[in-house]
Every structure is written in structure tokens, then in C-alpha cells.
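[Q] Does anyone have a clean C-alpha cell version of this?
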Amino acid sequence: MSEKKNGPTTGSAGASTVCRGIRGATQAAGNEREAILSATRTLLREIVAANVIEPEDIASIFFTATPDLDAACPPLAARQLGWTLVPLLGAQEIDFAGSLPRTIRVLLHCNTTRSQAEMRHIYINGAEVLRPDLAPLPIDTNAGTPESMAVATPGATHKGESSS
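[A] Here you go.
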């Protein structure tokens, strides 16, 4: 009889396999079925490509959509990609003053040997404003000057998006 171990498993290269969360968001072009599903499929494809994820490594995906998107259910996009065994859950995003319209957000959980710092969160098609701290950094031609050495306030959030 083998003894059951709790905690992460060890992959073939000796690295521990753990479940990690990856965030992402996109804006749909409009409240039309295909606009919602196309935007969601694109977001999912970009997340798996950037993080080198196979569908069988996806543990689950949680989707939210802003209240102004009601022409389609975003989780359907994952099914259209052939991800028939992945557990999916959809919900309506909290409606608050100043929220970004036509926004689809995802929290994808995957099994990986990569560290949390290696996970790439994807914000596209106008949703970059939700997490400008994750946007690609421009080349700083003033690198090393006192102005370029300012540090962001820890825990600061942007445009209503939580830091978690």
C-alpha cells in the first residue's frame, strides 16, 4: 500500500507541480454574441500561449462579465476552443461607478512547475488600463536618473481593480 502525500507533487524534472492562478481581461467590441465570444477566445489563447499551458493542465476557469454584456456567456468560448473537460464558472461582475464597460475578466487556475513570478497575466483590447503595472514597460531613456528611480506605492490599485 502506498502512502498518500499531501501538498505539491513532483514533476519529471524534479520540480514541484502546484496550482497557480493567472488573471486576464479584455473588452468586447460590443454586446453581440460573436463579439463577446471572439474577445474571450482571443484572451484565453493569449493566456495559454504566454504561460505555455496545455488544456489538460487547466484546473478551472472563473469568468466575469460586466452587466452591459448579456448577449453571450463567456465560458462558452472555452468550450468552443475544445476545452470540454475544464470546469468553468461564469458570473456577473460587480457594477460600480467608473468601471470599465464591456469587460470580460478571467481567473484561470493551472497546474504548473513554474513559479508565481513566472506567470504572465494578460490584459488586452483596452483592459490594459485595469492593470498598467502589468503592461509591457517602455524603454526608459532616463534610466538611472533620480526621476526614473521612483518606487510605486505597495498595495496600490488601479481603476477599481483589486491587487489580488
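[Q] Thanks! Anything notable?
[A] The two ends are 41 Å apart (CA to CA).
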